[in-house]
Amino acid sequence: MIGINEMFNPSSVAVVGASNSVGKVGYILVDNIVNGGYGGKVYPINPKSDEIQGIKAYKNVKDLPEVPELVVISIPSPFVNETLNDCGEFGVKNIVVITAGFKEVGGEGIKLEEEMISIIKKYNINLIGPNSLGTIDTHTPLNTSFSQAMPPKGNIAFVSQSGAMMVAIIDWSVTAGIGFSKVISLGNKAGSTEIELLEYLAEDKDTAVVIAYLESISEDENFVNTLRKVSAKKPVIILKSGSSAAGAEAASSHTGALAGSDLAFDTAFKQAGIFRVTTMDELFDVALAFSKCPIPTGRNLAIITNAGGGGVVSVDAMERFGLNLVEFDDKTTVKLKEAVPDEGSVKNPIDVLGDAPVSRYQETLGIVLDNEAVDSLIVMVCPTASADADGIADAIIDGAKDFDKPVIVVNMGGPTFINADKLLRENGIPTYVFPETAVKVVDYLARFEAVQERVYDDPIAEIKDVDTKTVSDIFAKVKTDGRDTLLGSEAYAVAKAYGISAAPIVLSTSNDEAGKIAEEIGFPVVLKIASDKILHKSDIGGVKVGISSKTEAEKVFDEIIASAKKAHPDIAPDGVEVQKMMDSGDEVLVGMVRDKQFGPMIAFGMGGIYVNLIEDVAFKLANGLTSDEIDEQFESTKVSTLLKGFRGEPAKDIKDVKEAIKRVAKLTLDFPEITELDINPIFVYENGSSALDIKIKL
Amino acid sequence: MIGINEMFNPSSVAVVGASNSVGKVGYILVDNIVNGGYGGKVYPINPKSDEIQGIKAYKNVKDLPEVPELVVISIPSPFVNETLNDCGEFGVKNIVVITAGFKEVGGEGIKLEEEMISIIKKYNINLIGPNSLGTIDTHTPLNTSFSQAMPPKGNIAFVSQSGAMMVAIIDWSVTAGIGFSKVISLGNKAGSTEIELLEYLAEDKDTAVVIAYLESISEDENFVNTLRKVSAKKPVIILKSGSSAAGAEAASSHTGALAGSDLAFDTAFKQAGIFRVTTMDELFDVALAFSKCPIPTGRNLAIITNAGGGGVVSVDAMERFGLNLVEFDDKTTVKLKEAVPDEGSVKNPIDVLGDAPVSRYQETLGIVLDNEAVDSLIVMVCPTASADADGIADAIIDGAKDFDKPVIVVNMGGPTFINADKLLRENGIPTYVFPETAVKVVDYLARFEAVQERVYDDPIAEIKDVDTKTVSDIFAKVKTDGRDTLLGSEAYAVAKAYGISAAPIVLSTSNDEAGKIAEEIGFPVVLKIASDKILHKSDIGGVKVGISSKTEAEKVFDEIIASAKKAHPDIAPDGVEVQKMMDSGDEVLVGMVRDKQFGPMIAFGMGGIYVNLIEDVAFKLANGLTSDEIDEQFESTKVSTLLKGFRGEPAKDIKDVKEAIKRVAKLTLDFPEITELDINPIFVYENGSSALDIKIKL
Description:
The structure is a homodimer. Helix content of chain A is 39%, strand content 20%. By secondary structure, chain A is an alpha/beta fold. Chain A has four domains: 5-241, Rossmann fold; 300-450, 3-Layer(aba) Sandwich (Rossmann fold), CATH 3.40.50; 468-580, 2-Layer Sandwich (Dna Ligase, domain 1); 586-697, 2-Layer Sandwich (D-amino Acid Aminotransferase, Chain A, domain 1), CATH 3.30.470.20. Chains A, B: Its EC number is 6.2.1.13.
């Protein structure tokens, strides 16, 4: 993405397909660039005209007197790649392709887009599109889109995968009082992806907050780590739609069935420090707050209102969002008592009463913002007969400017506040109609502060005592055998090689061997038929528990083989597995389901036969997994309460459980051929733990 | 509430406290009534003036030439009750008290309000307030409030417990394009409660939808049954705030700990067929839809859009709300193919493309609405260069009027749609900016249809085979003993008297008796120390299981008594309980926690020692409980999946479980002295069930 800045702030722009016919895209593009205030050189390209809209035109990019820093292409799709080649040869580095008719139409379009990708790779070109509506930079200013309205200037960058949504939002931004730095229509993402653009916008000086409407995320196992660098600098808010399209995929493992297809996105966004919203109004409510407000230093909120009802509604919302209502100290309370009449309330939410004049708002605001315990302030104004909407707005603007704290205004009404809303927003104060919205955005502001505070360590990289050779060898053997599932004994060996505590399982192929192995691992043992083809092992007499002597083990070996042969004469079992019988403990599960997009997703939760009923499971992506995230994953389950010692039980070995999570993450990162992994149950004891049943699928 | 209609449409209104001083409440009231277009007689009452604002004034209500159908009072609080007495004696039936300074200020105000209540009871007066902002009827028209703005006329009735919120909403309604039939400020609810007013509004011909902002609900065990009559006629949408104030109360029973204080409201609203919303914008979004749209006959939705992105976002929202995307039949598809170009989509959501002219919207709309499978339609318009916002609006109005189906428009933008939004709303079509809002309101419309379809039977009333005498006697004995908790044997007897299947428990007071009882109920048995004072019975050797003979029972009796005496020398046990040992089954719990406001709330869910960890419990209020609601309660738990036969297990006796729910409901309705009840676990078998542990607290 070298030189991508020239995409938005080029010294010269060529428009391929520039036109003199009013209403045609090629006309609108030149018109928007020239009349949108762009100060650089504009080169219309049109093989049939010498002049476009009064500007000298050229027949081909290659004829230009200089290499344009940006080329915008809007010619029929069959001719686009030829132009791209010309651009590449001429040394052009930044291109926006407006033309549609590529991947999105299927058939020939897919081929054209593949060809396009190879051209831009060859010449190392930054390309937005094809099928893009174009880009807008309000600061340059440069409008390479065929949206005729230029959105208001501001500090929000908006990346949209839908052109129509982009147009809608530009129109709506006027009503919403929202200003943009850049608006980018992604189109088909043949060149620049949303991830690359987000990386760029993180560095963009004109942008304070990045928002995006996305229907897909480019496949990238490193997504979490890349986006963390973005969210460390700026708030990123994404409306990712299309969540319903795929639905939960059918999967053979517990873990797979528990994880829906949309869960991976949620998980990735959370770990990356990105905010995912589910509705468009939430996207813009939150963007407005980030575009105006400083970031608070915590979750303590104060409210000033001239209506008790508004306070009550806000407190409800605060409880839903987990924000704290500041309790004022005596000093502040004394001051507030001087400012607020007795019938009001100096307890948070502060009720300055329906008859509050501007001065009462002003004094209260100063006292509250001056209190160190207050991280954010919401000021609410109901249009009572005495409320001077504009005067209160002025007082808020004036009072807020001395403090580096978010002040958010709720102007509860319509016509009364048209001017006040404008005034406040122009002076860096976001306004909303309803108290719940204000509380919600404070939650986002505070959550961003928490993202900034995150520590990204790498506990998985610290694990060194693993034996990759053993695992590779086992996987090679499984593949040679033409199987896709490991035998219990193999899975045990893999776990052991990666330091995951498990009850020993060894495969025996004769009654004599079974006896010997049983003696080695220690009684009592379980014997189980070994075969990836026999599914319901217990039902056919393929499992015997509580075997307590060598002789018994030898005898049971023969019985199990006989039962299996009787039930499945056509299946040759691999032998009989001998497993040490463990004392029972609290049951947990650790699993992995591999996401196509983001790689291994690690599950932790309550184990046992009812996992799919209880659904007490939390997921994290292995890529970038931190110690804090493992703690959070653990704590977010109900079984964590059990392990910490429920109803007087002693606490269990939580450290060992977390170790298992880490090691499963490492194993599945090291071996991408593992498609599914389920350890259920793991018995957790006061000291240590033991995996009972390990299923690994390649 | 006889004659309450005169509260809103009186032939004459007297204003006590009427004033000539501009700006005073008594001035504004007269001004609002006279200049708000009211056509009836107006009588200002003021002891010091003969004329108020040019109208003949009277010194006292009693001096009036006729009994006014409505009296509005705004005089200092110490004088209000005297006036009320005068009104009562004179025969006034409807009064609005604007004056504040009653219950809400505490102290003397509480006394004044108590006195007020006795006066209105004495004279059978309908009274709104005190501390009300007044009422507005836009149809009469009559504005008895001191809000100077008259809201737009419409068919939404709005009841508000906060005066300031009422003012805010009146102001906002202009921007939101919402019209009201009546706006009522409840004040302190000394007379008319929100429940009575909702009952009245159900019959009001000018009102199509009732919305309310409430901070409390008047205590009424019959709430569910009363409000069902309202919701059978009109949609009722309530924003009930103050949910966080109380928090979950500490309770000694499982059931109590599982039920938060706010849960009772949620449960009551659901059972009453009322919609509870959590935010103010949701309240008004939904009200707008109900005020404009017919009620759909199902949950099948079609979408027409000129932007793919809007369709995707809508489908996501539909999945969240559980609405169905109609799959069109061949006939419709053929017609759509003629109307929509190939690059568009004739599959739902129908993409008419960004260049769609008015005619394409028009044709598509007709085809889709004509399809019988379509219950509701959302039409989305993005402001593309070709989109003719006003023309499309006209086409929608024209096309929708021939069909009795909800048509909801999403105009995704700002300035482009100002006129179109107005046009559509004036012609009975609600409009929203974002697709998710449109989908949400369709969900509400369809849910109201489901409310209309409900069958309210009374399965509890059908239970006749109960022995109330036995229960009364046991409770009397418990009270005489000075206890508040029943012994296990007593609780068993209560369960038996109410036909709840339970493992027999009988109290023995000697080793000889223990042996005899054990023999009678059949071995094996459990012996347990009987005492409401000994809490951890197992820990002190107070419980012995698996007793299989008479001799053993006699011996264990002595051992248990000895252990108990050793551990608690100060406690005299009531004896030893002998309980039949039952085979284990699937564990469920049935419980009851009594809500102060709504009466018994019945819990059903997964049983066992981890109930508070698993939290798989659903609640229903016993008052008005129907068979469908019991089914729903059962189905909403995870344990229902288990009982239906999980992972190949045979199905359990679900009928017996539901019988237990009904009978616990009946028991706790019949005996209000039961404060808490917990049956956990109940073992559920393939045939029948058996309650193991029953705790009843009075």
